[in-house]
Amino acid sequence: MNSAQTNALMTPTVELKKKSQWVSALGRVKKNKLAMFGLVLVIFMILIAVFAGVVAPYPYEEQHLADSLLGPCAKYPFGTDKYGRCILSRVIYGARTSLLVGFAAVTLATLIGGCIGAVAGYFGGALDNVLMRLINIVLSIPNMLLAISISAMMGTGLVNTVIAISISSIGEFARITRASVLSVRDQEYVEAVKAISAGNSRIIFKHILPNIMAPLIVQYSLKIAASILAAAGLSFVGLGVQPPTPEWGAMLSAGRSLIRYNWWLTLFPGLAIMITVYGFNLFGDGMRDALDPRLKD
Which of 87, 118, 143, 199 is deepest in the core (most CB within 10 A)? Predict the structure, then answer.
């Protein structure tokens, strides 16, 4: 029996084993009530963001100057701001902005950091030393401080906010990917692929990365919450998404000077941030527990 026939026989077994592992992990997530509660919160916020135009009672930029700074009432359940804009509508549309920044920033950081970590871990040697020293420099700067510095240099806006948060998160994904690659690069299936003269890019992206997805998925789900908080922080200090685009951090900043007498200006955007971050953290913790081999039944 030649090597091609051997690989053909082994492939279904390997794929079946991988599938059973993911099915088992999914079953453990379903048993985790807190993780499922977090998933419900996340899905709820995503649906709110997707259908904001249907759910919101008013356009987010529509002003009713005669109704400025009204407290919660039947017409405006979350009250209005100083321009008479509906807080409920702005919170709903703000979910779209905050989730977009969170998912886009973390996805970009995962792709760039994952590639850097995979290359460093696979090739090792001088390339590994150079790349990891650069990553260590990035990691030595607090994420929020680095994001603020990048935003101050590049300017404000949605795209620049995504870039700033993603750059500040690259180091974590690079380190996790490198450590995972180091743990599998000398295993038998990698050596077998090398023996048939497969290219390095094929080995990394087709055979190594698919087998180290578990820690990346966990980090991805947890990092979205941190990115939403970072986006809110940048907007709060005036370096993130700019008005009139609704964003929870910017809404908190706009209402902080009126918080003593107009509490609804900061309460409801703050609750939206808290619920979203709490949901992602619960779900991320559940994914971590489900995919941790030390916690398998």
Answer: 87
Cβ count near 222 (within 10 Å) = 19
Cα Rg for the chain, rounded, in angstroms? Answer: 23
Q: How many Å apart are CA 68 and CA 180, to the nearest integer?
A: 55
Identify the three-state secondary structure at position 86.
Answer: strand
CB 246 within 8 A of CB 232: no
176-220: pLDDT as tens digits: 999 999 888 878 777 787 777 777 888 888 888 888 888 888 899
Give yes or no for a contact between 19 and 55, defined as CB atoms under 8 angstroms apart.
no
Q: Tokens 């619920």 correspond to what residue? A: 275
Measured distance CA(287)–CA(173) in Å, rounded: 17
Polymer length in residues for the chain:
297
Residue pointed to by tokens 């992990």:
25
- The model's pTM: 0.85
DSSP element (H, E) containing 73 = none
**Could you say which residues of the chain have pLDDT below 70?**
1-22, 292-297
Which of 121, 119, 114, 111 is CA-nearest to residue 181?
121
Residue whose pair of structure tokens reads 């990691």 in the numeric block: 139
CA quadruple 223, 157, 96, 70: dihedral positive or negative? positive
Side chain identity at residue 83, one-letter code:
Y
Q: Where are the domains of the chain?
A: 32-295
CA angle 179, 21, 220 (to 5 degrees): 45
